[in-house]
Design a protein that fits this description.
single chain, mainly beta, Immunoglobulin-like, 2% helix, signal, Carbohydrate-binding domain-containing protein
């Protein structure tokens, strides 16, 4: 997952299958029960419009088991005038809102409950990308990750460069908690200039992204429950082949 942690919807159109009905009318999955191989779920993709419209990614599967996980929503849009990416994270079914109140900017907030976006401009599985996190206390973590193996391979180079003054650089977040309704939400803006995005090329630009959520509680800490939009096959958020296509439209 994160740099030191050892514990680490889909918006694509659904595939339509034509098949003869099964003899056993109790079967609900014709593609599997009539002798056809089961159809795998499509990879998640996301179209991000210009604000105020929003592209929405939701997920409710754990990492890596793909078991039920609390519902999580990520809304994105871009502002071509201010050159900002806007992200709205909403964490539902939250019971503990667990964070360390002594942690500050770029602290190890990933040890507790956070929501995250991993962002890269380009079409290829990235070796460098932005890792952004926010916790229920509105504390943020932002760093560019250097991961040339694309999987954080043991013995391979792996490093980070913090954005040490995010507010001055234009990274802002506003977080609200609703303990009665069991959710928290963070509205975030991230400058597109961080990704060397020319103004005239914002619309139509291709990106690779993934979104994650970790959940802890005072009783279970430091163990975490992990969820993802595109679920990696290991408890690691730094396997970049699982970053999915995002297109600004």
């Amino acid at each position: 997952m994160h740099l030191n942690s050892v514990l680490f919807s889909a918006l694509a159109a659904a595939t339509v299958i034509s098949a003869e009905p099964c003899a056993n009318t109790d079967q609900t999955d014709n593609s599997a029960s009539c002798g056809h191989p089961p159809v795998s779920a499509p990879e998640p993709r996301l179209s991000v419009p210009e604000c105020p419209k929003r592209g929405i990614a939701t997920f409710n599967r754990s990492v890596p088991e793909k078991k039920p996980f609390p519902e999580t929503k990520v809304e994105l849009c871009y502002d071509a005038k201010t050159l900002m990416l806007h992200i709205g994270f909403t964490a539902y079914e939250e019971e503990h809102f667990h964070f360390d109140p002594n942690q500050g900017t770029n602290g190890d907030i990933w040890e507790y409950s956070v929501m995250e976006a991993f962002i890269h401009r380009g079409k290829e599985d990235p070796q460098t990308y932005l890792e952004f996190e926010v916790n229920p206390n509105n504390v943020t973590y932002q760093a560019f990750i250097y991961n040339p193996s694309r999987v954080r391979a043991e013995g391979a180079p792996f490093d980070h460069a913090f954005i040490s003054n995010p507010i001055a650089d234009g990274i802002l977040s506003n977080t609200t908690l609703d303990r009665e309704e069991n959710y928290w939400r963070s509205d975030v803006q991230i400058p597109l200039a961080l990704f060397n995005t020319p103004e005239k090329n914002i619309r139509g630009s291709h990106w690779k992204m993934n979104f994650f959520r970790t959940i802890t509680s005072p009783e279970t800490f430091p163990e975490q429950a992990l969820g993802a939009w595109s679920v990696p096959d290991k408890a690691s958020f730094h396997i970049t082949k699982f970053f999915r296509d995002v297109i600004f439209v």
